[in-house]
């Protein structure tokens, strides 16, 4: 069976900064989310299993989607039949695709291994040498040992599988994050080439706001194939980024150019490029689009564009000497990972009905030579651009489209013709500020926030999603509370720790009942982003002395 | 009687950013606050009453303070006997003192007129032409009419004096604020002379953090006699200012110098001057000092100095090219308004045991010519400065000391030898971001915050103070919720309004019982600080449709 037909509605951002769907719709959506059965999880294989996925039937063979397919414009409706992509596109990077897939599957496998392993351990718990055998099993299957205390106490009141589950999940996350910062597996620090290219196009910083929906968490490293160290990613629900915060960032970047000549000197005529990436679903446009905008593509695009204009206007109104910024709006089809790009004219105006479509270009240039394909893309971008479009912007967009072709192929071939999880399949909630290491789709439900008071609507939606995914089966909701800090600033670490603890108390207070039942566990972490180091665990609620709220 | 002997403990900031007094102490302190009796309020006279206050007995004639006086160092213990100041100091500005006093007494009188007027109105409320007579009285005594609805409904369930009180207080505050922004009564916008002087001393911005204690609310306009438009005031509990936020401000100022040459070009060798003003009480040092530091002067000074060093280190660590800042630490005696200044050496190091004392200098230079007095001050500042102190810093400090002499005289003469309110006498709570117009001592309990979650300890202390001042007499706590915004930034007003409403909901939730009993009322206001306009009232809980929480 193709799991994407589970008809789970996407609720990731039923509300957020400025978005206000009706409460009824939000609750209703959350209830519709068909829960995953913990026992039925299929752990992703540690080794490639291309043959399995490629042989899956295409979505076009299934009845339920047929009616909605007919309503879609041609280039959005096309769902690729896996059998036809044996011939790769001339411009796709197959070795990178392999590396990305290995990383993705390895991380997913580590998370998906937890439930089957704990099931086995649970079955053992009446054995006399239980602790020892459980640890051997955990070491073999998960790569780490479990806390002896929980295992040793199993004879008294039974095995506390909720705590074990949360503990294992937190440990898996911690190891993934530390590996990410130690090894740079997605080569996000190899920034020189893209930095130079970006400046040659007339931009000194690319600041991207994808929607905070977990299905866009891989926007930089996978969808656009950019080194994460070379761009700024700042996700917001419904792409409604914080204008004031972005103005502050602009000032910081300009100041650095003036003072340090980084990335170039202030007199170089490059601009700050602000990009918004909204999203839609070609397969189920009315349910799996952006929840913050009621799955209305047009609304999502307009809202992103309006926010971009507000930012530009804020800069132009607040600073002299012709201060301005460049703007760009990108749409992402979360079913295929294909992008469509709305090119701006010289004043940053964009026509929402006019875009260049990477999916269509993939097919149109599939049988050409690399040179001809590249030329075809450039011409298509030019054709989609307003007359007064900036030449550098056209070149940048052509590059983004070309990069995206690899991701289109990645999804078509390596993921079996499409993502198995159109709806929610997150493993944990990420709450606070940071999470640079989360570069995989649908692994994490994000709630970027400073306080529960400001982020309560997002947290509520998250909890309802995990009520369906976990709580309904008796599994707890794992929440990572995180604040990154600048270690160069004295006292910053202590303030980050204090902030994490305060947030944790507010969280435990808001979700009191789940916490009391052991159905919501938290791990508090901080990270010194100046040092480039891994995570520092402050505390966890699965420790003998919990983080708070119990 | 001298009201300062009411022995109210100062609790304004029993905790805050980083300060952590024991909860027991905080609660205990709050309970000790001896409440003011509404009926017993003495409204400040609208016209000067110098003769009344000067004739009051000196504190030195009263027994209770004698023991603690002996423990004080000589120049802190001296409490001036009013009779001796008939001869003003040669460097004080008597006409400014008169203007400042007229403004202060006018504002206080407006607030203090509310309770007596409502008492009179209450006495009328069984009369047949009640509404009309009440409005005449209100117009005559308060300068505005009351809401007809509340008056008209008095025959049903009695006069709702709680709502009337909150309504009148909010209206009085609103009128005071609008007058402040329209008229600039403290001439805070006359900045040119001080700007030029400051730059001649080697500084391009003076950024002052007084403690957020209401007894330092007049630090800029009164204590230091600086135009508020020429300095940045950012108050924090216990002076524990936000290092990250101040680094951002530094970047903004540097960027403006680079881009716009304001206030001077970036290549001018001036520095950003960060000043911390801690406080202490010479009359009751163990109870009326800084509550955030347990009334321990040394601790308050050390904490301020440490935060200053953290800020400098953050700048030096985070930016290249010899980036640094200048630091200055000032102590304020909240009983006399005299300052003591700790001068830094070339590296910004300060000796907490070494300071120049304005109170002592007032007396020492009292009988000299203006020139000789000025010279005496300069020499005293030089003597108190480290060998490597910056010449510009010495000149600046000498100016601050000279300015402060006028305030010392203001307190000695015009207030009857000292402040009548050593403890709490605030009229309302100010919650949120803004409040530039609050330039009077002890008028307002401040809680600068973005969310209740972050500012809860300060709000709790504030509510306990007003429980003593108001609630214990049946009067509600008036809370002004305020967020300033930059009107140049599109959408900023809407976000400020939304933020005020969110904060109001959280506030009404935290103090549910008081709200339900009509004992906590809120007015929500926003202000466009780019436009320099007055307040915009968003809503109030005294309106027929309250702001929330009822």
UniProtKB/TrEMBL annotation, chains A, B:
Which residues does the UniProt record annotate as the domain Carboxysome Shell Carbonic Anhydrase N-terminal?
89-181
Q: Its Gene Ontology molecular function terms?
A: carbonate dehydratase activity; metal ion binding
What biological-process GO terms show up in the record? carbon fixation
Carboxysome Shell Carbonic Anhydrase C-terminal domain residues: 425-541
Q: Indicate yes or no for the key word Nuclease.
A: no
Give me the stretches of Basic residues compositional bias.
72-81
Gene3D superfamilies annotated for this entry?
Carboxysome Shell Carbonic Anhydrase, C-terminal domain, Carboxysome Shell Carbonic Anhydrase, N-terminal helical domain
Residues spanning the signal sequence: none
| Subcellular locations according to the entry | Carboxysome
Pfam families according to UniProt = CsoSCA_C, CsoSCA_cat, CsoSCA_N
- Return the EC number: 4.2.1.1
Coarse class of the protein's main subcellular location: other
Q: Where is the composition biased (Low complexity)?
A: 14-25
Recorded family membership: Belongs to the beta-class carbonic anhydrase family. CsoSCA subfamily.
Return the NCBIfam families for the record.
shell_carb_anhy
Please report the name of this protein according to its UniProt entry.
Carboxysome shell carbonic anhydrase
Organism of provenance = Ectothiorhodospira haloalkaliphila
């Amino acid at each position: 069976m193709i799991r994407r037909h589970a008809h789970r509605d996407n609720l990731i951002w039923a509300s957020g900064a400025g978005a206000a769907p009706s409460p009824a719709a939000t609750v209703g959506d959350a209830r519709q989310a068909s829960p995953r059965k913990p026992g039925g999880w299929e752990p992703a294989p540690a080794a490639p299993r291309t043959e399995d996925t490629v042989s899956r039937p295409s979505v076009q063979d299934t009845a339920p989607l047929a009616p909605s397919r007919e309503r879609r414009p041609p280039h959005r409706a096309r769902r690729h039949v896996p059998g036809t992509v044996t011939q790769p596109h001339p411009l796709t990077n197959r070795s990178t695709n392999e590396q990305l897939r290995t990383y993705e599957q390895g991380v997913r496998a580590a998370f998906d291994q937890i439930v089957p392993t704990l099931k086995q351990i649970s079955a053992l718990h009446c054995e006399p040498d239980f602790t020892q055998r459980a640890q051997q099993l955990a070491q073999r299957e998960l790569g780490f040992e479990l806390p002896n205390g929980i295992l040793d106490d199993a004879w008294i009141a039974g095995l506390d599988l909720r705590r074990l589950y949360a503990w294992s999940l937190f440990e898996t996350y911690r190891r993934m994050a530390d590996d990410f910062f130690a090894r740079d597996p997605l080569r996000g620090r190899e920034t020189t080439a893209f930095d130079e290219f970006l400046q040659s196009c007339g931009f000194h910083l690319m600041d991207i706001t994808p929607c905070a929906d977990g299905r866009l968490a891989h926007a930089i490293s996978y969808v656009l194939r950019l080194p994460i160290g070379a761009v700024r990613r700042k996700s917001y629900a419904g792409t409604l980024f914080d204008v004031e915060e972005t103005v502050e960032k602009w000032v910081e970047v300009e100041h650095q150019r003036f003072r340090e000549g980084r990335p170039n000197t202030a007199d170089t005529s490059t601009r700050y490029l602000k990009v918004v990436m909204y999203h839609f679903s070609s397969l189920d446009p009315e349910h799996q689009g952006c929840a913050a905008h009621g799955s209305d593509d047009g609304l999502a695009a307009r809202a992103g564009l309006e926010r971009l204009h507000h930012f530009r206007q804020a800069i132009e109104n607040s600073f002299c000497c012709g201060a301005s910024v460049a703007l760009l709006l990108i749409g992402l089809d979360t079913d295929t990972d294909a992008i469509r790009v709305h090119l701006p004219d010289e004043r940053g105006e964009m026509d929402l009905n006019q875009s260049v479509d990477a999916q269509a270009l993939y097919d149109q240039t599939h049988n050409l030579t690399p040179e001809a394909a590249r030329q075809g893309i450039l011409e298509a971008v030019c054709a989609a651009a307003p007359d007064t479009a900036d030449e550098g912007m056209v070149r940048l967009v052509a590059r983004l489209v070309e990069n995206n072709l690899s991701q289109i192929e990645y999804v078509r071939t390596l993921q079996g013709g499409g993502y198995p999880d159109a709806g929610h399949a997150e493993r944990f909630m990420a709450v606070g500020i940071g999470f640079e290491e989360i570069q995989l789709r649908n692994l994490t439900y994000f709630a970027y926030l400073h306080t529960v008071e400001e982020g309560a609507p997002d947290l509520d939606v998250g909890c309802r999603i995990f009520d369906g995914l976990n709580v309904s089966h008796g599994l707890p909701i794992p929440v990572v509370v995180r604040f990154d800090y600048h270690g160069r600033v004295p006292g910053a670490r202590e303030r980050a720790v204090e902030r994490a603890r305060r947030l944790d108390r507010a969280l435990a207070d808001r979700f009191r009942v789940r916490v009391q039942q052991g159905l919501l566990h938290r791990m508090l972490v901080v990270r010194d982003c100046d040092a480039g180091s891994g995570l520092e665990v402050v505390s966890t609620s699965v420790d003998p002395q919990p983080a708070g709220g119990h």
